[in-house]
Amino acid sequence: MRNYTMEEEPKDIIVLGAIKKGAKKFAKIKDKTGIDPEELNKILEKLEERGFIRVERKKALFGGEKIELHVTDKGANELGQRIHEMEQKWDKMVQLYKSGDKKQLQEYMDQNRMDFPMMMFFGVMNMMMFSMMFSMLGASMHNYVPQDQVPPGAENQPADSGDAGGDMGDGGFDIDIGF
């Protein structure tokens, strides 16, 4: 059994995913996840202790050292398992939505609300479908996912295709795609 609290686990998985997607340096991970530096440092220490990431120290060009983070096989396996679980939960939510059973959908969403930031970060959920679920329930996304837990760029995620760009307008981080 995992020894995480419900609130910290989603952020840990998001950080692990950011590293797996190529963010190898602290600043890049912070920008991709929107997690404050102090909390991010604790998460990275925890991931290293559990054997999910390894720290690689390299000599920098002009002296000193450069630190890079890499996901271990154990971390990649955990991440793959968690993404698979999220996909199964999302599929169940879609099935409940399509069945028109508001009560069951609401109960299932209430039980799994801590996974929503991860589902957004990894692109597991279709944001258009997600908003239709909230409409059916007469709720808003922020009843389930507080604004400070929405990963940077998630609110601009396309439903299936299209332009994910545009101004976020809320002073949030833009997604850094490496240019």
Describe the structure.
This protein is mostly helical and 179 residues long. It folds into two domains: 8-72, Arc Repressor Mutant, subunit A; 75-151, no CATH class. Helix content is 51%, strand content 8%. It is built from eight helices and two strands. The chain has a two-stranded antiparallel sheet. The chain is elongated and about 60 Å long. The N and C termini lie far apart (41 Å).
Short description:
This protein is mostly helical and 179 residues long.
Q: Secondary-structure blueprint of this entry?
A:
Elements: H1 8-20, H2 26-33, H3 37-49, E1 53-59, E2 65-71, H4 73-99, H5 102-111, H6 116-121, H7 127-137, H8 141-144
Antiparallel strand pairs: 1-2
Helix pairs in contact: 1-3, 1-4
Rounded radius of gyration (Å): 18 Å
The number of helical elements comes to 8
In round numbers, the mean pLDDT is 81
Class based on secondary structure composition and strand pairing: mainly alpha
Query: Which sequence of SSEs, written as H and E, runs from N to C?
Result: HHHEEHHHHH
Main pleated-sheet profile: 2 strands, antiparallel
| Low-confidence runs of at least 5 consecutive residues | 1-7, 156-179
Portion in beta strands: 5-15%
What is the 3D shape?
A: elongated
For the secondary structure, the number of strands is 2
Helix content: 40-55%
Number of domains: 2
Strand order, largest beta sheet: 1-2
